[in-house]
Amino acid sequence: MSAEKRKLVQVSNLKMHFPIYGGLMRRQVGAVKAVDGVSFDIYEGETLGVVGESGCGKSTVGRAVLRLYEVTDGSVVIDGEDVATLSPEKLRKKRPSMQMVFQDPQASLNSRMTVAGIIGEPLDEHTRWPRAKKLDRIYELMDAVGLNRDFANRYPHAFSGGQRQRIGIARALALNPKFIVCDEPIAALDVSIQAQVVNLLEELQEEFGLTYLFISHDLSMVRHIADRVAVMYLGKIVEVAPVQVIYDDPRHPYTEALLSAVPEPDPSLESRKERVVLKGDVPSPANPPKGCNFCTRCPKAFELCHQTEPETVEVSPGHFVACHLIDKNPTAGGTGGARVEHDQGKIQQGEDA
């Protein structure tokens, strides 16, 4: 990352706890800690991939960053403004600069609206353009995402999954946003269509200078599109590194297990690959384990893992891991905390764990 790049998104100690109510009086008896102290930064024009198994909090992070949920704690600074504390009026004015592409293209599109109506809805809400100017913008967006203009008056049911996702992407681009959260945008698509949508996202990023938070459980696709990767487990980020580093040299046991599950196209390499099989089930986010969240399933866990939460340390330039195995290694170096930042091409670490 070049020195002149500026931080567009700064997330600090983000927490998203959903209350649990019980008893006759329906009092709060606990909370589901879906996201529990996540911090990261994203620079302009960068793609940060967030990976992890289902239920780890990836999608909740994306929605909380855009304040589709009211965050429990922490700050989300996007382009100099803390979205988490904005008033409703100021938040509405901020919406055009931050958008989202949802996972299910069928569920996220209004089946009673035409393509032109869906893509043009943000323009109706946030601009006072005349009808002709809006129509020109709609056609321009359809061209950008590869949709035929003749389809403008058709309804979503007439399109394939990939075409519906293109409609969703066009809608997200309508107001010229700077930052887009892509919440598993290819998960509901056929494999043959997934590459087309990812290539489209890359082309649009280059053309419009977009910044992405790309959430996915498809590790091979994240490797293709992301500049850096953050690995999540049970509401926390356990490892962050540039994409090539994390795939070539994973240091957290959970990251190693995830990568070992990725199929290898070469049969000879696949037969020699060591598969890491995790035992047991993911603990409940309503009652996470003491110490490291991963200690109940980690094949390398020892006594300290069950007692103390690990700090995040820098094991190499730009590569940060939250693991006691790294803490015990005197050659790893680094500092504690969970803030992930760039500094002239390197990621720094703060102390606000």
Supply the helix-strand structural class: alpha/beta
Helical coverage, percent range = 25-40%
Order of helices and strands: EEEHEEHEHHHEHEHEEHHHEEHEE
Largest sheet: 8 strands, mixed
Looking at the structure, what is the overall shape?
globular
Average pLDDT taken over every residue: 88
- What is the radius of gyration? 21 Å
Determine the N-to-C terminus distance: 24 Å
- What proportion strand? 25-35%
Poorly predicted runs are 330-353
Total DSSP E strands:
14
Strand order of the largest sheet: 6-7-8-3-9-10-12-11
Tally the helices.
Answer: 11
Description:
The chain has 353 residues and is of the alpha/beta class. It contains eleven helices and 14 strands. It has an eight-stranded mixed β-sheet, with helices on both faces. Strands 2-1-4-5 form a four-stranded antiparallel β-sheet. The protein is globular and about 70 Å long. The C terminus is likely disordered.
